[in-house]
């Protein structure tokens, strides 16, 4: 019996030892090499329990404590002096961070959060030496909203979007009031971010009242800039806390590319035709010779009788004496020899008769 108890205790101890690292890995942690440093110095930030090969952003933020997170979002952080780091295969990282004063007073924290993928964050208390310290603002009591369903983006791109018009969608989600008082006309913040850039927040107010223990379906418009394309992330924030994130893949506006290709083909052709017309008008012509159009003359069909002269031959020139023929010419009748003088006398022999 004692042997069985000892074996059972050993098994329980082994299970607890094995499960401790697994539980620790499920929750990200952050540790600092120093709890206080002045502006211009630096600290080393280490972490564990994060996703493997995850991209993280490290910032010094004010008006925050680990129990409440960063209510003001990244607007209360020293964003210009932040650092990015990628975790290893075991979800660990180590990064040197310069100390900078946040735009709001302390208490301050070193805030570490994922940039892409599933959202995860962790904070560690940090004091910026010489920076102002003020009490935290009172936490809002009463009604509190919680997202009950997954967010989605409704809508589709039209023909105008294909030619560079701003893509528009509707962010739809369901929230529930988990507080003790009603919430009237809640003010949300909708942000869009591209790649590793911080979201650009826009305030949008929903008209209505959510009673305690009740839920409501909310739809908020989301619009990007003209010609936007690529992978975007739509974030929803209420009361300084990010409630949900939704990825949005925007296609490239190929109509704009097609337009520029046609412009590059049509405009040079039109300019060439205009230039040729100007050159043709400005070219000098030879004087004394009128430009006559070239006409194509077709052969004429004529009816030819036997013995009739060919139309291609020229008629013989008219005779000087048209009423005489060469045979009836009086000067030429009976003259077969060379012409001689008829009045001349030829001597005759004497004694002839």
Provide structural commentary.
This protein is of the alpha+beta class and 353 residues long. Helices cover 16% and strands 31% of the residues. The protein contains 3 helices and 18 strands. A 5-stranded mixed β-sheet has the order 2-8-7-4-5, with no helix packed on it. Strands 9, 10, 11 and 16 form a 4-stranded antiparallel β-sheet that branches. A hairpin with a 2-residue loop joins strand 17 (230-238) and strand 18. It is elongated, with a radius of gyration of 53 Å. Mean pLDDT is 78; it is low at 14-25.
Strand order of the largest sheet: 2-8-7-4-5
Average pLDDT rating: 78
**Biggest sheet statistics:** 5 strands, mixed
Strand content: 25-35%
Alpha-carbon distance between the termini?
204 Å
Name the poorly predicted regions.
Answer: 14-25
The coarse silhouette is elongated
Helix share, percent: 10-25%
Instruction: List the secondary-structure elements in sequence, H or E.
Output: HEEEEEEEEEEHEEEEEEEEH
Structural class category: alpha+beta
Radius of gyration: 53 Å
Number of helices: 3
Fold blueprint:
Layout: H1 2-26, E1 29-32, E2 36-38, E3 42-48, E4 55-62, E5 83-86, E6 93-98, E7 108-114, E8 121-129, E9 145-147, E10 152-154, H2 159-162, E11 168-177, E12 183-184, E13 187-194, E14 200-205, E15 209-210, E16 215-223, E17 230-238, E18 241-250, H3 254-282
Parallel strand pairs: 2-8
Antiparallel strand pairs: 1-3, 3-6, 4-5, 4-7, 7-8, 9-11, 10-11, 11-16, 12-15, 13-14, 13-17, 17-18
């Amino acid at each position: 019996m004692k042997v069985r108890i000892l074996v059972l205790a050993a098994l329980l101890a082994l299970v607890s030892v094995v499960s401790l690292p697994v539980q620790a890995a499920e929750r990200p942690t952050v540790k600092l090499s120093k709890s206080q440093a002045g502006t211009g110095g630096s600290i080393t930030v280490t972490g564990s329990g994060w996703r493997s090969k995850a991209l993280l952003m490290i910032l010094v933020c004010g008006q925050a404590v680990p129990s409440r997170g960063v209510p003001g979002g990244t607007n209360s952080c020293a964003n210009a002096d932040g650092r990015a780091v990628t975790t290893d295969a075991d979800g660990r990282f180590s990064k040197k961070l310069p100390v900078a004063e946040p735009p709001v007073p302390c208490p301050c924290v070193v805030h570490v959060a994922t940039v892409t993928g599933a959202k995860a964050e962790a904070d560690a208390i940090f004091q910026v030496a010489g920076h102002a310290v003020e009490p935290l603002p009172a936490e809002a009591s009463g009604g509190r909203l919680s997202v009950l369903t997954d967010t989605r983006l409704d809508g589709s791109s039209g023909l105008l979007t294909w030619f560079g018009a701003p893509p528009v969608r509707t962010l739809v989600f369901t929230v529930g009031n988990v507080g003790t008082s009603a919430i009237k006309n809640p003010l949300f913040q909708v942000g869009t971010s591209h790649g590793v850039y911080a979201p650009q927040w826009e305030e949008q107010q929903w008209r209505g009242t959510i009673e305690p223990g009740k839920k409501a379906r909310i739809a908020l418009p989301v619009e990007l800039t003209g010609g936007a394309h690529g992978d975007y992330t739509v974030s929803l924030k209420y009361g300084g806390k990010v409630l949900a994130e939704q990825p949005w893949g925007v296609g490239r506006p190929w109509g704009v590319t097609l337009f520029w290709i046609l412009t590059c083909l049509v405009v040079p052709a039109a300019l060439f035709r205009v230039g040729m017309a100007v050159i043709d008008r400005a070219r000098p012509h030879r004087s004394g010779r009128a430009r006559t159009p070239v006409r194509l003359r077709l052969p004429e069909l004529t009816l030819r009788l036997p013995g009739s002269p060919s139309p291609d031959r020229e008629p013989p020139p008219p005779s000087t004496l048209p009423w005489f023929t060469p045979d009836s010419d009086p000067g030429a009748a009976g003259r077969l020899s060379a012409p001689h003088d008829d009045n001349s006398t030829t001597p005759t022999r004497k004694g002839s008769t």
